[in-house]
Amino acid sequence: LDADGAAAMGHPAIVRHLQTTYGVPDWWCQMVTVGYERARGLRAVHEKADGFAANASKTLAADAETVTAWFSDAGLQARWLEPGTVSLRSTTPGKSARFDVAAGGRMSVWVTAKGEAKSGVSLQHERLPDAEAVAMWKTFWKERLEVLAAELQADNDA
Cα–Cα distance between 54 and 103 in angstroms, integer? Predict the structure, then answer.
């Protein structure tokens, strides 16, 4: 890629170059391009095309529909997250929710059933300005998911 001048191409052009010149399949083009960009200092860890992204995940003691309700219902959400932190864009009960984050960026939440009363939740806060914001938001969302887990447990115990 260095010999092909990829360092000056930009991400989409590198992907096209890998596809057309070397016949690399789509998914691998993305992986190779991101790896190349990181190796050459053209992309930082957690950096995406539209900024940086922070991730957090947790297994919760509730079914998937209950978990999505705790994200999308304002009353339930207020029990584990400061009101006004996020505003709901869309939700699919038992599967996902998408939000605008008041402090900046967008957040996607995916819920995966792991049995009758257990679900995995994974969130990604995107469009962050830099790696420092990633570190701050990762900590924030991990702490909030711990509070959510405690609230769900309290409801289960009641």
Answer: 14
User: CA 4 to CA 19: how far, in whole Å?
Assistant: 13
In this structure, the dihedral spanned by the alpha carbons of residues 130, 132, 135 and 141, taken in order and rounded to 10 degrees, is -70
Question: Can you give the pTM of this predicted structure?
Answer: 0.75
What is the distance between the alpha carbons of residues 95 and 112, in angstroms, rounded to a whole number?
7
Smallest CA-to-CA distance from 65 within 107, 99, 116 is with 116
Residue-wise pLDDT for 99-120, tens only, equals 999 999 999 999 999 988 999 9
In angstroms, the first-to-last Cα distance of the chain is 60
How far CA 123 is from CA of 38, 56, 140, in Å, comes to 23, 5, 12
* 21 burial via Cβ count (<10 Å: 0-12, 13-18, 19+): exposed
